Here is the input.
Amino acid sequence: MSYTTAFEQVGHDRGRQEGRQEGRQEASLEIISSILKTRFGEIDADEELHKIIGELVQMQPEEFTPLLLSLSREELIERFAH
Here is the structure.
């Protein structure tokens, strides 16, 4: 395999990996939003909950799901407040 071909393959693999990561984050965002809406009602205007969504998306579903199902709105905000 030539250097150019190997370099192209690495770039292709990296692009595929980044695409999968973005897909996982989008799926997590959908799950998080759905759980928050179910538990706390409309969240679009809730700035405090919006602030923690970015952090929750970075977590694995098995980490964020129990938190979303067990903690109150205030406890979630407190836990992720910086």
Notes: Residues 3-80 form one domain. The chain has a mean pLDDT of 85. The first helix runs from residue 3 to 40. DSSP finds four helices and no strands in the chain.
